């Protein structure tokens, strides 16, 4: 990496809906680029000693979002691919931190394709209001993902290997 690129931007952050492939594509990218990998959902579960679903059941979706924000603000990594939870974009502070320390890539996947991929919507640990459907969530989050993305990739018709290769080409 040339000295011109600041070390703080030496990370890549993947954002997008549950089912977009952030975790899987993140691992592939990390391997191909010789980088570390961190999944903020996994960090939350390790530090809280609970699944995301348990956190939501005990404290509600806003509690999960608050924990997520704290995890992101505490992140101190270099040369890593960071896979985030789908709800990270609700936190301006978390997103400002991620944009400062990484290039933010939105894995955009169409609604029908996401529905096809996600079969466990109600038990998956997705931060949402109780009465919020997957469609509501999709509509609410899309503008936020677009707002924060530095790079947007349409992942609807690519498998995860192809998606990783496409991201590498765009970098």
Mind explaining what this structure looks like?
It is a single chain. The chain has 171 residues and is an alpha/beta fold. The chain has one domain: Rossmann fold. The protein is built from eight helices and five strands. The protein has helices spanning 22-33, 40-48, 52-59, 61-74, 92-101, 111-117, 134-148, 160-170; strands spanning 11-15, 36-39, 80-83, 102-108, 151-154. Strands 2-3-1-4-5 form a five-stranded parallel beta sheet, with helices on both faces. Helix 1 packs across helix 8, helix 2 packs across helix 4 and helix 4 runs parallel beside helix 5. The chain is globular and about 40 Å long.
Radius of gyration: 15 Å
The number of helical segments is: 8
What is the general shape?
Answer: globular
How big a fraction of the residues is strand? 5-15%
Q: According to CATH, what is the topology?
A: Rossmann fold
Structural class: alpha/beta
Mean pLDDT: 93
User: What's the N-to-C terminus distance?
Assistant: 12 Å
User: Could you give the order of strands across the largest sheet?
Assistant: 2-3-1-4-5
**CATH domain class name:** Alpha Beta
Largest sheet: 5 strands, parallel
In short:
With 171 residues, the protein is of the alpha/beta class.
Secondary-structure blueprint:
Elements: E1 11-15, H1 22-33, E2 36-39, H2 40-48, H3 52-59, H4 61-74, E3 80-83, H5 92-101, E4 102-108, H6 111-117, H7 134-148, E5 151-154, H8 160-170
Helix pairs in contact: 1-8, 2-4, 3-4, 4-5
